[in-house]
Amino acid sequence: MIMKTGLIALALLGSTVLTVGIAQAADKEISWIYCGDTIDPIHTKYIKQWEEKNPGWKVTPEVVGWAQCQDKTTLAVAGTPVAMAYVGSRTLKEFAQNDLIVPVPMTDAEKKAYYPHIVDTVTFQGTQWGVPIAFSTKALYWNKDLFKQAGLDPEKPPKTWAEEIADAKTIKEKTGIPGFGLSAKTFDNTMHQFMHWVYANNGSVIDAEGKITLDSPQVLAALKAYKDIAAYAEEGPTAYEQNEVRAIFLDGKVAMIQAGSGAAYRLKDTKINWGVTTLPLGPDAKGPGTLLITDSLAIFKGSGVEDKATEFAKYITSPDIQAEYELQGGAGLTPLRPSAKVDEFVAKDPFWKPFIEGISYGGPEPLFTDYKGFQNSMIEMVQSVITGKAEPEDAIKKAASEIEAFK
C-alpha cells in the first residue's frame, strides 16, 4: 500500500482536473515552475538560444519564491497543467509511485559524466525520474582563533569523530564557547545534518533494493557520536537549524560547524580566522563522506509536451551550460560533473576542495514514498537521543520500524 502524504493526496484529488487540463495546455509551450527570487540570467540566455533553435516553441518560467515553491508545485500537479518543475529530488519517488511524472532515463555516457552517486539521487527501481540541476555537499568549518585560545593547534582540524569530540570538549571547557554547532530543531535539515554523519561512517538508511538498513552498527555509531558531541554544543540544540547554527559561527560564538559552501562566501566578509576541511571520519569510514543533496527538474505527466520538456531539461542542464550556472562567483552550488573548468575553479578558490573530495564516499538523500514520514521519524530519533529521552539503541530500533512503512 502506498502511503499518501498531504502532497500526494492533494495531487490525486486533482487528477481528474489534470486530465481535463491537457487540452488546455499550449502545444508549443513548456511551462516551468522555477524556484527562486528571480530567474538566473544564465538560464534566461540559454532559454532564448533553445527557442531560437526550436522555432514555434516557447519556454515560460514562473518564478516562485523558495518558501512557496513546493506548495506551488503541489497545486500545479493537482490541476493546473505544468510541463516541468524544480523539485527536491527527495520527492521523485513519491511522484513516480503515484504516476505523476514520467521517467527521464539517462544513457551510460550521461551517467558517467556526473560525479559518483549523483545519478543515485534521482534513481528509483533502476530508472531516473529527474534531471539534476543543483547540488550541495557539506564540509567542516573551524574557527582557528578559538582553537588557539583553547590551546589547540589552529592549523590542525579534527580528522576523526574522536578528535572532533575531544576538540569540542577542550574548547568548551577552556573558553566557555560551544565547541560544535549542532542542528536538532524540528526542521528538515536536522535529518540532513545527521545523514552527513551516517555517510562519514559508511552507513546507510535504505539500500538499492529497498531494504531498511538504519539499524546497523555504522548508523548507531553516528547517533552515539551525535549524542556525545551535543554535550559540548550550543545550549538547547533542539532550538537550532543549520542556518541558525551558521549564524552563530559567523558571529564567532561557536568553534566548529558542518555547512555548505555558501558559508565560505559569507565568511569572506567577516574578521574570523577560519578554515574548512572534509567532514571528520567515523570508525568504519572508507574515506571522506557527505550527504549528496540534489534538486532536479521533474517532467510531469499530462502536459502533452513531455518529450519536448525532457529535451529542454537535458539541454538546460547540459555540461557546458550547467558549469556556467554553477561556477558563478558566490553561487554556492557544488559542481555536478568533473571538468577542466571545475579544476580551474577550485584552483582559484581552494576552499572548494573538501566539498568535492567528500563526494566519492558520500551517499544520496534517501528516497521514500512518504518522505515527510521518513524525515519526521529521523528528526524524532535524533531529538530523543539529544534530550536524553531515549538511548541510541532504542531510538534507532524505533525509527527503523517506523520508516519501514514509509518506503
Helix-strand layout with pairing:
Elements: H1 6-13, H2 15-21, E1 29-35, H3 41-53, E2 58-64, H4 66-78, E3 84-88, H5 92-97, H6 108-113, E4 123-124, E5 127-128, E6 131-136, E7 139-143, H7 144-149, H8 161-175, H9 188-199, H10 217-230, H11 242-250, E8 256-259, H12 262-267, E9 274-277, E10 291-299, H13 306-316, H14 319-326, H15 340-348, H16 353-357, E11 363-364, H17 371-386, H18 392-403
Parallel strand pairs: 1-2, 1-3, 10-11
Antiparallel strand pairs: 3-10, 4-5, 6-10, 7-8, 7-9
Helix pairs in contact: 1-4, 9-17, 17-18
Describe this structure in words.
With 407 residues, the protein is of the alpha/beta class. The chain folds into two domains: 6-137 and 292-356, D-Maltodextrin-Binding Protein, domain 2 (3-Layer(aba) Sandwich); 139-289 and 368-406, Periplasmic binding protein-like II (D-Maltodextrin-Binding Protein, domain 2, 3-Layer(aba) Sandwich). 43% of the residues lie in helices and 13% in strands. It contains 18 helices and eleven strands. Strands 1, 2, 3, 6, 10 and 11 form a six-stranded mixed β-sheet that branches. A three-stranded antiparallel β-sheet has the order 8-7-9. The radius of gyration is 22 Å and the shape is globular. The N and C termini lie close together (10 Å). Mean pLDDT is 91; it is low at 1-26.
Brief synopsis:
The chain has 407 residues and is of the alpha/beta class. It has 18 helices and 11 strands.
